[in-house]
From TrEMBL:
Family: Belongs to the Dps family.
All residue ranges annotated as the Ferritin/DPS domain in the record: 47-190
Molecular function in Gene Ontology: DNA binding; ferric iron binding; oxidoreductase activity, acting on metal ions
Pfam family, one: Ferritin
Keywords: DNA-binding
Organism (species): Granulicella rosea
Origin superkingdom: Bacteria
Name of the protein in question: Starvation-inducible DNA-binding protein
Upper lineage: Bacteria, Pseudomonadati, Acidobacteriota, Terriglobia, Terriglobales
Amino acid sequence: MAKDKSGKADLATPNWHAQAREIQAFGTVTADLPHPLDQKVRTEMVKKLNQLLADSIALRDMYKKHHWQVGGPTFYQLHLLFDKHFEEQVDIVDTIAERIQLLGGVTVAMGGDVAEMTKVPRPPKGKEEVPVQISRLLEAHKIIIKECLDISEAADDAGDQGTNDLVVSDVLRPNELQSWFIGQHLVEMPLTFAV
């Protein structure tokens, strides 16, 4: 701690060089959590939920990328829709992360860790055409929807109704709805005349 001229501790100076060991390793769950689910079940659910979280973070960030980089005749509509879906994914990500913590686990959180874990293919840094942007988003949704179905079944088998409810109500259904909304932009429809 810093000291002033008289040798007393200077309490106004921040102590910002703190170092400490990790208090819980990633991939573990706390053993003595007052939760009725067995530690083995919680460990397995946390592992599955962290994968879902990594993929949801990747999808969330892809929505923001495409929001910034979209162009063409449907720019305005897609610019707003991509941002709306981004905000919805922010809530989904937070909900998944809170469930992981509630089960006594540690959430994946940093971009580099997410990039290592995600199953969602990484888009290029540059700008792409709208159909490619939408196709990438649909592929990411497909991955997440499949994970939700797998987690729901595993959670049901393990008696983890909380995780089952979360992945179906808070992740699966919004991802299905978002897929439908963006997928309709790939349906060939004339903009200015009827066929």
